[in-house]
Input
Amino acid sequence: MENPRILVPTDFSELSFNAYETAGYLAEILDGTVIPLHVYQPEKESGSFPVTSLIPRTIPEIEKELKDEVRDYVSEEHLDPVIVRRGKPWKIIMEESEDADLVVMSSHGRSGFSRLLLGSVAERVIRFSKAPVLLVEKESQIKPLDDILLTTDFSDHSLQAFDYARFLVKKTDAKIHLVHLINMQQFREISAFEDLINAIREQLDMWVDKHLADIRSNVTSEVLPVSSSVHEAIVHLTNRKKYNLVVMSTLGHTGLEYLRVGSTASNVLRLVRTAVLSINPKRNEAIGNEHVEN
Output
């Protein structure tokens, strides 16, 4: 993430250009570059983000239009040459993301309907991208980056999310609210539940001291008992406080199928209106070694 190359797909819709505002801001604070990408298909083959439904144009014409649009959001010094390719959008994005450090995209396309549905381009990119994916919505407001919600289930997978959150804090001096959520419905006795909560609070404090020690003054931690599902609790948290960013791993303790339908990560990505940075632990190496046992 040092001097990152940030890939941003677009279909020329107003919604998709929300991603460029976010990418331009990150390029400035991280001293990175933005790579604009447009994938086009014949209209009869289209049906998912990001494709063009405009009249046929030459590739140089599309490149010029894309560059002109992106200049409104990204300064010239942080802008790489635009890329225009023909093919299946998610496959082309995957190919181009091989050389990127981050993918920033909207979950909405030209139609205006949510594209974060099973089989959609956004869902496939998040599932298979080797680079972390930052998903933005119309309501997302990442600038300035002041407050980050970081989640953990005490799995090794979640530690990679710690690494990215730490890096952003060091660049922005943002505050991290680290949360572990536990469902109360599995407990029959209140006393047993209270004992467990106290033990988890101690464990969470130990994790902060061990894995986030270098930014300890920027971190608050909390164990939250919830009566609903974990993803609903995360949605409620982001509605209650306007975090700029949620950072989470897309795999937890179970290590089951990545971003499986109905998983906490999958539901958060579908429902949260805050920008979400998702890290795929199986396809990406951790940024730092702060959490590695010596």
Summary: Helices lie at 18-30, 59-70, 89-97, 121-128, 156-172, 190-211, 230-240, 264-271. The two ends are 24 Å apart (CA to CA).
